[in-house]
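FORM 7B: Structural annotation worksheet

SECTION A. Query
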Amino acid sequence: MTQPTDIPRVRTALLLASNGVPALPLRRGKVPFGNCPACAQNACGGRPNMRTPGPCACPRPCHGWAAATTDSDVIASGPWARAWREAAAVAYHPGGAGLTVVDLDNSAAIAWAERTLPTTRTVATTRGEHWIYQGAMQSTNAVRPGVDIKSTMAYARWLGTGTGTITALPDAVRALAVKAPAPVRPVSQAVAVPVRGGGGECRHRTPTYLDRGIAMAEQRITEASSAVHTTVYRTFLAVLSTHGRCGCLTDAHVARLFTAAQTRGESVRHCTDAWTNAHTALGL
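SECTION B. Predicted structure
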């Protein structure tokens, strides 16, 4: 019978772990294994928004990047064994090892890095290169065309040791994750909503009721750790379904929602499109 340590992927993970690099298995499609039934929909109460590695004690390799571990016993035995046998690839948590990966997805991105960033260890990928620096930072996707940053709260495929010497994380890379806030320009149709028939006083005009709803919408957007586009659209849809037919929304309310979305990296155009699409979906 094949032992876990006979599987090349397990040996790779154990080697990474022995060097202080948290490893995790990836299934087909280069994605982590899904949460186990006990942890589905965060039922275990652990790792809210996948920002922390606990307190869930589930022994299975779920919770995405937070499943990465340097514990050789966890990797080579117990409930993990089946996952490693089924795994299509090995990934690691760069931030957990104090590293940052600049993921360059095409030749144009590589050319930009060669002109702009200091040289460091380079690993070839299917379509481009990973540039690996010493130092952790916030992970951010699409910092420029074809460029993602993978460090904390993210994972990267393990594709070998690469070539060159790892150098310190430069300010030029850190600056890529800093996005200047864009001016908020709510579109006119965002507040030009029809009044509900009947002519009675709108219950949503109660300041506490409306302000609580807008505050909850802002919180939902700003706390989104993934699928930000979808979260923004669904939040706009929820706000409009409650407040969109009575004329209670003002420019100030819409500006607050747009600002919250922009703090999560959304552009004014994306905000406007999501708002317009929500109007259309509700027939407003």
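SECTION C. Observations
Confidence is low (pLDDT under 50) at residues 47-54, 180-201. The chain has nine helices and ten strands.

SECTION D. Sign-off
Analyst initials: ____
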